[in-house]
Specification:
The N and C termini lie close together (about 10 Å). By secondary structure, the chain is α/β, with parallel strands linked by helices. About 55% of the residues lie in helices and about 15% in strands. It has one domain. The chain contains 13 helices and eight strands. Helix 8 links the parallel strand 7 and strand 8. The strands form two sheets. It has a six-stranded parallel beta sheet, sandwiched between helices. The structure holds uridine-5'-diphosphate (UDP). The site of uridine-5'-diphosphate has 14 residues, from helix 9.
Length: about 250
């Protein structure tokens, strides 16, 4: 389905993992987006970003706002597919099938710490390499070359949006990986650098509130949430007049 012009594949984490492991063994480079509410709002004004999302191999439902809209439009999706859960699921599957992974992103030390945590959890996991996400555009070629040389088949890119989507769109083929997944700040969480919201808040779809309290500087970014609600409401009203209630985008 499309939500405000952005493609969303309403599949759960198990199905997404199956597809990603299949991509990893294939010859082409499949870009996987974990789509968030802020990203959809950003895409309204950034047509290149919207094109990247819509041209990806998979666009997964990462946030409660998108989940609510997808379900209201009939998607049989129970849970969102967060970057952290996706990393866990995919690494579990990669470990049991011998698929090497690469972790890219975060401040220096974060990706290697996340690699150590994942290796502890999945002893058979092959971590082909890791590196921080703070490099100049001029070094992107050599970063992609390093990933290719590592032999990784899946790269998790936690560079923040829209940078990670733009980076994967431009450089994933050069990495030689079968799948590249944008995971935002998930490597910070996996490494233990940043704590996730307590499960109770996550279940109540209040993770955004927890993050706002922990990182007040995010308030400006989080204005995207009420904006998303307004845009979806406007879209719903417009569609009622244009095509008998089917959402327009
Ligand atoms: N980051 C990076 N390179 C950059 C800018 C950011 O690797 O040039 C990392 C940053 O350290 C953090 C992640 O990208 O780990 C962005 O986290 P945030 O929670 O803002 O991501 P979101 O999931 O909201 O996109």
């Amino acid at each position: 389905m499309k939500i405000l012009g952005c493609r969303l594949d309403a599949i759960d984490a198990d199905e997404a993992t199956r597809r990603i492991l299949a991509f990893a063994q294939g010859a082409s480079s499949a870009h996987v987006v974990t789509l968030g509410t802020e990203m959809v709002v950003h895409a309204q004004a950034d047509s290149n970003f919207r094109r990247i999302v819509n041209g990806s191999a998979l666009s997964l439902c990462d946030t409660a706002g998108l989940l609510a809209v997808a379900r209201a439009r009939g998607a049989a999706l129970k849970e969102r597919v967060t970057g952290v859960e996706l990393i866990e699921h995919v690494c579990a599957g990669a470990a049991s099938t011998g698929i090497p992974i690469f972790l890219l992103g975060g401040a220096p030390g974060v990706a290697s710490a996340a690699a150590a945590v994942l290796q502890g959890r999945y002893p058979l996991l092959l971590v082909a390499g890791s590196r921080d996400g703070y490099f100049n555009d001029a070094n992107s070629d050599s970063v992609a070359r390093d990933i290719r040389a590592s032999g990784a088949r899946i790269v998790f890119a936690g560079l923040g949006f829209p940078h990670q989507e733009e980076w994967l769109a431009a450089y994933l083929p050069q990495t030689g990986c079968g799948a590249g997944i944008g995971v935002g700040g998930s490597l910070d969480v996996v490494s233990g650098n940043v704590r996730r919201a307590p499960a109770l808040l996550r279940r109540g779809h209040l993770e955004w509130l927890y993050r706002l309290i922990k990182e007040p500087r995010r308030w400006r970014r989080q204005l995207a949430l009420p904006r998303f609600v307004l845009l979806v409401a406007r879209d719903g009203i417009r569609s009622r007049f244009t095509n008998n209630g089917d959402a327009t985008s």
